[in-house]
Amino acid sequence: MSELVPTDDNAITPGGLMRALTELARDEHFDVDKFKVLADLQLRMEDRQAERMLTRDLAAIKKRLPPVERDGTISLGQGKGSIPFASYEAVMGVVQPMLNEFDMSISFTSRFEHEKVIVTAILRHPAGASISADVPLPIDTGPGRNSTQAHGSSIQYGRRYAVEELFNIIRKGKDDDGSTADLRFISGEQCREIEELIQKSGRSRDAFLRWAEVQDVTEIEVQRFTATKNALLKAVAQKEKEAAQ
Question: Are 86 and 99 within 8 A, CB to CB?
Answer without folding.
Answer: no
